[in-house]
Amino acid sequence: MLHALRLILSIATICLAGLAAASIVGNPVRGQQLFSRCSGCHSVQGENKSGPPLKGVVGREAGAVEGYRYSPALMNAGTTWSEDALDNYLAGPTKAVRGTRMTFSVSREQDRADIIAYLKSLGGQ
Ligand code: HEC
Asked: Does residue 92 fall inside a structural domain?
């Protein structure tokens, strides 16, 4: 009996842990506000600033905007910007892609999720 109870408890704990991991849901409205941290270097439309434009970046290959001069590191990263890959890059760009010229990072997980949700809401190119 006690055994069964322990089993149920541990299953419940695993389920709760799963819920916690999935509970970081990005808020695109907040993400748009947070994007002011990025907009000095990134437009969302076509224009190149010191960084490439980011509309359509979710699901795009890294280093793919024509006419933008990327670092060789990002060009050769072989990464596709899934939400996970973006999260990782924003958390620590130079760790995620050694030699990338972007050094700005976003430390809060919720902020990253919100920014990614905003970028996603912009749709493709
Ligand atoms: C100080 C300037 C600067 C800021 C601020 C900045 N970036 Fe960047 N970002 C860059 C540069 C420069 C690159 C190109 C890096 C390279 O070529 O290695 C880049 C590249 C990127 C890429 C890869 C794009 C691609 O086409 O592969 C993403 C995604 C990105 N930045 C997202 C962001 C987000 C989101 C923010 C705000 C939280 C942000 N950046 C803030 C300068 C910046």
From this structure: yes
Quote the pTM value: 0.86
Mutate to test the pocket of ligand 1, among 30, 41, 43, 44 (most ligand atoms within 8 A of CB): 41
Supply the range of the domain harboring residue 99: 27-121
DSSP the chain: -HHHHHHHHHHHHHHHHHHHHHT----HHHHHHHGGGTTTT--SSS--SSS---TT-TTSBTT--TT----HHHHTS--B--HHHHHHHHH-HHHHSTT-S-------HHHHHHHHHHHHHT---
Q: How many domains does the chain have?
A: 1
Residue nearest (by alpha carbon) to ligand 1 atom 34: 38
Residue located nearest, by CA, to atom 35 of ligand 1: 38
Nearest CA to ligand 1 atom 40: 38
What's 46's domain CATH number?
1.10.760.10
pLDDT tens digits, 56-114: 999 999 999 999 999 999 999 999 999 999 999 999 999 999 999 999 999 999 999 99
